[in-house]
Amino acid sequence: MLWERINRFWKAGLIEKNRKYLLLTMIGMMLVMMTGCGDKLPEVSDMEMTLSETWACPSSENECVDAENIVEIYQDIYDDAIETNTLGSLEIKRRIITRLGENGYVAVDSENQIDMAGAEQALAFCKSVDKKESDKLTIIVITDLGFRKFDMETEDGNVNIVRGYYQYDQNGHIQNKSTVSYPADIWQYTEEGYLFFKGSYFSDENFVLTLSDSQEYTALRVLPLDETCRELNRKYILPVGYEQNNMFLTDWNEENYGDLDFYDIFDVFYPSLYKQPIPYVADDNLGVGAVYQIPEEIFENVIMTYFDMDRGTLRRETTYFQEDAAYEYRPRGFEEAEYPDIPYPEVVSYKENEDGTITLIINAVYSDESTSKSFSHRTIIRPISGNRFQYVSNQTISIEDENDIWWHSERLSEEEWKEIYGGTR
Q1: Main-chain phi, psi angles of 35, to 5 degrees
Q2: Global pTM?
Q3: Are strands 106-109 and 135-142 parallel, antiparallel or unpaired?
Q4: pLDDT by residue (tens digit) across 247-256?
Q5: Alpha-carbon torsion angle 225, 228, 234, 236, nearest 10
């Protein structure tokens, strides 16, 4: 199965882009071979592998002073956040971005959940790139524990970037964790209002693993977005997302659930409903396929909290053992792992329907592909009293071809599972 997935990358023309992922996957395969199916893998700390670069601050005196000046602008907000234990919260990030904008900076959060401050400066810089005029721009991207600073210069349509990453230490002092520079190999401003840029730079650590330069992908929303769209996204769509589930990747409705995978949905909602991690985990031995029988009251409670469906329908869509009053459940294993960098959903419009449901239009934003609309889908939500809600349907609106979701892996079929694990249960 792993070799089939690698073959998928070849067919999609994505080998160069995913060299690191493929190499790490092959390393995992070799570790299994070396340790044997009956032994545990070494701990990560024992393997001593790292994919990040760290340089001491400052890389240059002016850069460090500039970073300190930036922090000084919102120091009181940071102090308040430490005192109230709200550092990294959406509201604190919003206050910081607003303050930086008031002081003439272009600023946005790293997850594009807050409107960019100083967006007009970013748009002016993009126009300079298009017109091949000389210009400069600095963008501050706020993260949970610090910020990234992009210093950009353009001339003759080319863009050069110096990116610094700054993080607070345990004493509350800002430190330069890394600084890299690169020309923008990709520079694109989309009609949806996103700025994408990508560049490559040399890193000793990454070269050892990938035998190539490191690549950095950045996606920043420049144009503002309706705050209601953002709130609807955070409540209904982002908690599910596109990772290890097909809820928004396939068409389904309450009359026909199609290829919707309820086991992945169970994985998504169990932690939020029961306020604890899923206890039904894969076996430590990668060569053993774990199988559980989940009591019907637990499995049905998770699914039927978020879907208006009867038990009979759910049992037909899954594997149910009536004599045991339980559902068969096989957790995702090593063979079903997905590429780590995937698109994220963004609600771009909504409509409140007469029957009380809400129709959401969502774009999949994918920085690795430099697109703010990798695909689009229409999802209908049914709000219920007491802050509860149900998912009513999902429909794909636009997708160019199947390679647009190449990063997703379906769960193993019954036949595939038996082939890999020998049919043991």
Answers
A1: -85, -20
A2: 0.82
A3: parallel
A4: 999 999 999 9
A5: -130
